Amino acid sequence: MNGSKHSFIRMKHDYAALKVKQDRLMDAIHNGCKFGASHRYGDDPTETGMARMSLDDSDKQIRDWFKSSVESIGCVHSVDQMGNQFALRPGKNKQAYPVMMGSHLDTQPTGGRYDGILGVNAGLEALRVLHEHDVETEGTIGLVNWTNEEGARFPMMAVASGVWAEAVPLETAWNLSEVSVSNDGTKKTMKQELERIGYLGQQKASYKEFPFAAYFELHIEQGPILEMEQRKIGVVEGVQAFKWFEITVRGRDTHAGTTPMYARMDSMLCAAKLIVEANKIAKGYDGLATTGILNMQPGSINTMAHTVTFTLDIRHKIDEKLSQIEKECRSRFQEIAANESEKGCSLEWKELVDSPAVKFHEDCIAAVRDSAIEVCEDLPKSASDGQLWKLMISGAGHDACYTNRRCPTSMIFTVTKDGISHNPREYCSPEDCELGAQTLLGAVLRYDKLRAERGEL
Amino acid sequence: MNGSKHSFIRMKHDYAALKVKQDRLMDAIHNGCKFGASHRYGDDPTETGMARMSLDDSDKQIRDWFKSSVESIGCVHSVDQMGNQFALRPGKNKQAYPVMMGSHLDTQPTGGRYDGILGVNAGLEALRVLHEHDVETEGTIGLVNWTNEEGARFPMMAVASGVWAEAVPLETAWNLSEVSVSNDGTKKTMKQELERIGYLGQQKASYKEFPFAAYFELHIEQGPILEMEQRKIGVVEGVQAFKWFEITVRGRDTHAGTTPMYARMDSMLCAAKLIVEANKIAKGYDGLATTGILNMQPGSINTMAHTVTFTLDIRHKIDEKLSQIEKECRSRFQEIAANESEKGCSLEWKELVDSPAVKFHEDCIAAVRDSAIEVCEDLPKSASDGQLWKLMISGAGHDACYTNRRCPTSMIFTVTKDGISHNPREYCSPEDCELGAQTLLGAVLRYDKLRAERGEL
User: Fold this and answer.
1) Local confidence band at B7 (pLDDT 50, 70, 90 cut-offs)
2) Which residue numbers delimit the Peptidase M20 dimerisation domain (chains A, B) (predicted)?
3) Number of C-beta neighbours around residue A110 at 10 A
4) Fold match flag (B3-239+358-453 vs B242-355)
5) Average pLDDT for B20-41
6) Distance, in angstroms, between B110 CA and closest chain A CA?
7) Of B290, B273, B332, B374, which is closest to residue B14 (Cα–Cα)?
8) Rg value, chain A, Cα
9) Could you give phi then psi for residue B69, rounded to 5 degrees?
């Protein structure tokens, strides 16, 4: 995306009166969070985290609320075979594909009140603004609540948008078993739970059955960049590439007191060196490296581990750079295990995930950028360079990665306090929620206008 | 211990005829290992490891075997309140305290056939040799089987010799609960299990009630030094100092994809740097550092751990050097956590064990050394310097550490294949078992003679 290549769409006169309401937005967020609230950390009613696992009873409650909320403002509600909920607000042209907003209402087991939830509620607020101003858009505008985005209960992230995009087979998704056993001692599948809570829809879960003209997703940044740079809105150009590996280091379990250093095959010490090295290599390429899981056997204070298994998550904006990070890690790891670990350890790499970089659509990015510029125009210029919006690459995956395969897509990021997410203390201020929702509304209206001007309706 | 200070006791004419029998020794070891054999790794009947947990049914069986074996050669058997089994073979002077041999018959859950087992069986073989040659020793010679040396079932290592030495209170030992639940779903205490298997003796568990004149323990080295240097017998001068710590690293759990390197408080990366550093520091002092346990929370591939807890086992022959290793680790760890871990992590140290260096008694060391010299005399000179015995410091703790508090003590080490111990494949060849047992017998007879010559009887 190069801003200079595209027309700078300014239609402030059209959208100036269409303002999202902060109070209504925040009320909707926090009222909805009554379903699944958990992990209280303060006295205020809103000072809890969330544990709304996909397709559990609290997820049914928030789904019922979603349905009644969108129907109360005249939207047409439907549910597909994956439980994805769609709300459509018809425009002047009722045949054209809808411009969609959306995100998800499920959370992590120790999640917060904004990840996903802000995106759906901002879309609902945008629809409410259109409704109360009786705006007739050029084409239909809609909102989607995707099922099981977190992949926390059924272990496949963004699985339901994946089925919609025909990137994940329906049966694969339906047969996913939950991670932990239910109260009755069994593990339920997605299909069983969709049926149980009444959200196994008839509508085929496919972009062919329910095509989008475009998709816009508002989300908290989940990182510290906007906050640290004192900016307000992230205009998301794409999602960085990432790869997940499970690396097994094999040494020998010998006694911590009787084995001289030179005679050791200390798999934990070797793994520690590899983790430090991966970090150094990734930093050298301006990429990321993280070890989130490490297990060791046998696990006794005075016995070296014979086996250490750890995960390595490496990321970079550019696919080629990620490949270089991986290549360098593989080469250096081999050297460290063979030559820098006393009597040596052996290594095994297993690739778990390979997710290439995603590039969002330039028209959607432009719509978000232009909306962000307008929204930020009258705010105090807190950033050192005075620019309150920033072109960003998402560090995390989102449903937008799958929609991007089937329709023009972009995302909007809001400030996330201390960059903390997937945590009960996750926080985005009411002001920032409002700015995000306003940017979302502006982007959707701009895109709607654009397609009309282009004669696509 | 300085060899030149002590008389070089040579009494080959006395002991030459007293030869341990390799076949009888190995038969005793492997017949006894039928009780608790586990973890088969080869076709030969002896190619299994052991899982004879202290005071379990197989431990009762081997204890019954111990009792009948020593009684069959005319020894007096007794059991104390900790289930320690004592066998005495009276000498010319029946009033003097006995010179004791001993070790333990319990094993690790994935243990081998030699750790502890060799020491008890070598003592039994020594008693058999005295018995069959009808030798009248100067004073009484005895053998002890200590309870729960491993600390694997009841989590306190060498607890029963600790009670004997009055270093551990009897009630503390009795009330120790087993690590895992029993078949009936409860956790038994040592006292309950002593009662259940019929080994809760009446005899007070105390060195005051049952004093030793001296104590000699034969044990596999459990390390690779003798094997690598192609020597045969370790003459053990003492046990190195060690300290155990549990170190907690606290950072922040943030998203692996959305958190830039500079904004991280990655507790796993910090812990990895600390483990590498501890190893470097210990190496610099010619000491040891090992991390045998590491746990991290929350444990998700794409989330940094907020907390990592790991154990640090540091060892050195000299107490002062160990203190220096600890001091340097504390100082460097602080620097790494505060200044070399991006936004920084916090550290907490918890000391679990502080075991100062143990120095065995010079008379016992001399007896072992002189016996080893004699035993090695006619063997092929495999070591590069031709010396088949070596003065050594034990890397691991043993019951001998506690006896050393109450009577002159030393130990004898035998070659351990590949230095592997606490493992089903632990191995000491029949030839090396024989050399060890012969050295034990010679050491005991030398010490017995010495005390007579000194007029201590």
Assistant:
1) very low
2) 242-338
3) 18
4) no
5) 97
6) 10
7) B374
8) 24
9) -65, -45
Residue A419 has its nearest CB partner, among B254, B301, B422, at B254
Fold of B242-355: Alpha-Beta Plaits (3.30.70)
The C-alpha atoms of residue B158 and residue B397 are separated, in whole angstroms, by: 8
How many angstroms separate the CA of residue B175 from the nearest CA in chain A?
23
Strands B85-89 and B49-50: unpaired
- As a whole number, mean pLDDT of residues A297-310 equals 90
Cβ(B357)–Cβ(B238) below 8 Å: yes
pLDDT tens, position by position, B101-159:
999 999 988 899 999 999 999 999 999 999 999 999 999 999 999 999 998 899 888 99
Helix (H, G, I), strand (E, B) or coil at B391: strand
- Residue with the two structure tokens 């059924």: A154
Q: Is the pLDDT of residue A6 over 70?
A: no
Strand-strand pairing, B49-50 and B214-220: unpaired
Contacts with A292 from chain B: Cβ below 8 Å: 256, 268, 296, 299-305
Check residue A36 and give left, alpha or beta (phi > 0: left; psi -120 to 50: alpha).
left
Average pLDDT of span B46-56: 96
Report CB contact under 8 Å: B292, A300: yes
Is the separation of the CB atoms in B375 and B438 below 8 Å? yes
Q: Give the CA distances from residue B48 to residues A252, B56, B424, B426, in Å, rounded to whole numbers and listed in that order.
A: 18, 19, 6, 10
Handedness of CA B389, B391, B397, B400 (dihedral sign): positive
Q: CATH topology for A3-239+358-453? A: Aminopeptidase (3.40.630)
Q: Give the domain ranges of chain A.
A: 3-239+358-453, 241-355
Q: Work out the average pLDDT over A396-425.
A: 95
Mean pLDDT, residues A409-415 taken together = 98
Give me the torsion for CA of B284, B285, B291, B292, rounded to 10°.
130
For B126-262, strand residue ranges (E) read 141-146, 214-220, 233-239, 241-250
Q: Find out whether A435 and A126 touch, Cβ atoms under 8 Å.
A: no
In terms of DSSP H, where are the helices of A203-266? 225-228
Rounded Cα gap, residues A142 and A59, in angstroms: 21
* B419: contact with A, CB 8 A cutoff: yes
Q: Is A112 on the interface with B (CB under 8 A)?
A: no
Gap between the Cα atoms of A435 and A388, Å rounded: 11
Sole residue written with tokens 């679990």: B352
**CATH number for domain A241-355, candidates 3.30.70.360, 3.90.1150.10, 3.30.70.260, 3.55.40.20:** 3.30.70.360
C-alpha B328/C-alpha B341 separation (Å) is 18
What is the DSSP secondary structure assignment for residue B409, as one 8-state letter?
E
Interface size, chain A vs chain B, as Cβ–Cβ contacts under 8 Å = 204
Contact with chain A for residue B273, Cβ under 8 A: yes
Block residue for tokens 């018959």: B105
Instruction: State residue A12's pLDDT score.
Output: 42
Tokens of B387: 């010396």
Q: In sequence order, what are the beta bridge partners of B238?
A: B359, B393
Choose among B209, B177, B233: nearest CA to B368: B233
Task: Give CA–CA dist B410/B235, Å, rounded.
Answer: 8
Cβ distance B210 to B175 under 8 Å? Answer: no
How many other C-beta atoms lie within 10 A of the C-beta of residue B197? 17
Q: Return the DSSP state at B111.
A: B
Indicate the helix (H) or strand (E) that contains A323: helix A319-339
Backbone angles phi, psi at B214, to 5 degrees: -165, 165
Q: Do the Cβ atoms of B214 and B331 come closer than 8 Å?
A: no
- Could you tell me if A36 and A59 are in contact, meaning their C-beta atoms sit under 8 angstroms apart? yes
